[in-house]
Each structure stands twice: as C-alpha cells, then as structure tokens.
TrEMBL record:
It comes from Saccharopolyspora phatthalungensis. Residues 7-128 form the SnoaL-like domain. CDD domains: NTF2_like. It comes from the Bacteria. This is SnoaL-like domain-containing protein.
Amino acid sequence: MTGPLSEILNLLGKQGHAIDGGAARQWAETFTPDGVFRSPTYPAPVRGREALIEFAAAFAANNPRAHHIVTNVCIAREVGTNECHVKANLLIVRTTEQDGCEVVAIDRVTTIEDRVVRHDGRWRIAERVVTRD
C-alpha cells in the first residue's frame, strides 16, 4: 500500500504508541503546531503544540497501562492533494491487576474524525474530533 492512506496509517500508529509510551512531545508533533484536539471526555478543546504536550503527558501519567487501538481507518473525503478528512474507530484498552491476575478491558470505543493536512511535507493532524458513537 502506498500513497496518503499508507502515510496516514503510519502517522496514526506512531501517535498511539507515543501517547501510550509517555512520549508526549512525539504525540503532539503528530499534530500541526496549531493543532486542535476535541473530545467529549474533556471540558475544553486542547489547542497548540505546548497544550497538546501537556495533555499527552498528563494522560500517560494518569493511565500507565492504556493502549490506543485505531482501526477501520479510511479517507472519508479528499479536499485536495494537501488535505483530507480521515475517519476511524478508536478503542482504549486498559490492563489492570485484580487478585494477582492481569485483567484487560475495553475502556471505551469511539469514532475519531481528523482533518489531516500536509505540513512541512508530512501529513499532520490539524484537528481531531472524538465522538461517542
């Protein structure tokens, strides 16, 4: 597979591994410098690189055994050669210990809708909207 979808899949994979591994700066760098993250789980949108770094660092610190699993990724609409809208499902899976056993549970299943743009020659997320679908 080549082309925008392949590059975007790679971007989303790196993004999930970054936030789950506590690499806040790398997670934030998957967004444009003025990128926006919106989720009904949080009271206000997160805007801009520094705020995205703080957000990702806090998430990782408070959720040390969370895993973001992105699936069903598709380009919902191509706006041009440098912009597209991507839709995917996101599962957040948590691993905990209970009575000495490892327990894996799906914390939530959501839909993510990203406006993805070329920034400095690479695909980056300009805006992510998480829904509760």
